[in-house]
Here is the input.
Amino acid sequence: MKHAKLFAEVALCAGLVSALSWVTDAGAQETKPRMKLGAYYFAGWSGKCPYDDGSVSNAWAKDMPTHFTKKLATEYAGRTPVWGWRDDTPELMARQIDVAADHGLAYFSFCWYWHDNKKPLNAQAIDEDSKHLPMKLFMQAKNNSRMEFSLLIANHGGFEIVGTAAWKQAADFWIANYFKHPRYLRMDGKPVIMIFSPKGSDKDGLAYLQEAAKKAGLPGVWVAGCGGGNPEDGFQIRTAYNTKPNKGLNLEELYPFRMLADWNISVWSDANRPVMPYLPVATQGWDRRPWEAKNGEGLGKGSGVSPHFARGTPEEFEKYLKRMADWMDANPKQTTQDRLGLIYAWNEIGEGGWIVPCKDDPDGAWLKAIRRAVYGK
Here is the structure.
């Protein structure tokens, strides 16, 4: 028997009151999914906004999280999640797990950050990083049996892991703190991790990761490189974080979603990629004007500027994801054995890639599109 469940959510940001009232169908999970689809999870919606200084001019920042900006409070307030901007309570994580699982998502891939940049491991700083709090809440959630989780190693500027010794420290830390968790994403018993910057990895360090995992009783580790990574360097899978066209595009025009989707689909079938399993990513959107803004309205002094793409309709998004499943059907030798796929992203709201229900989508139309693509209904 199928059980219907009504979710009612009240958003707390900027005086928004909005009901989340779609009916979710846990019974859909009785149908075999076409693929094991996950979503990248960016935890910049905890901690304290740097503009929250008690001043009248920055009243918009009061009680807001680290990556909230004035542009998100004003011009882009339609992106406000129905539950508000913060995601740092056990109750909200449990609710996100239910919402995601009810709509066909099998796992979150949480962004994980090294401390200190280019230096030896600082375990205390890693533990205290607010961007790791939602992952901790997921690991502790009473309903986390409904999903799995993995690490996306965000080894980019500010969080670089440099040198074999540091990569060995990272390996030991991942094994001790995450890989043995019962809900960690595995294939053939091997934990799966994604490396944001394969060029910044260390060959000997990744070899040590395999050795240390086996000593810890694991059969090894699947290491996926975002946009790069070869077997001889310690990678077994290729994937991406997000990907979008740039050549010949300007910074003034808002390009159509179809251009973004078609580009991603072409990346899945890149003939120049080494012969190894591929984990396709559907970049759901890219428009980080809320972060690019200057004069105190964006993120810090303003993040880097790049071409912007319109958000597609739920119907366009559904077709996009169905093409991912079709690609897996047509390329079984390139597809990972568990038919893993990813969406960029669950909540990269500042960058324009999000599927959480929001002020402009209180009924979760994009989530329903995911469920239809995964379960065929």
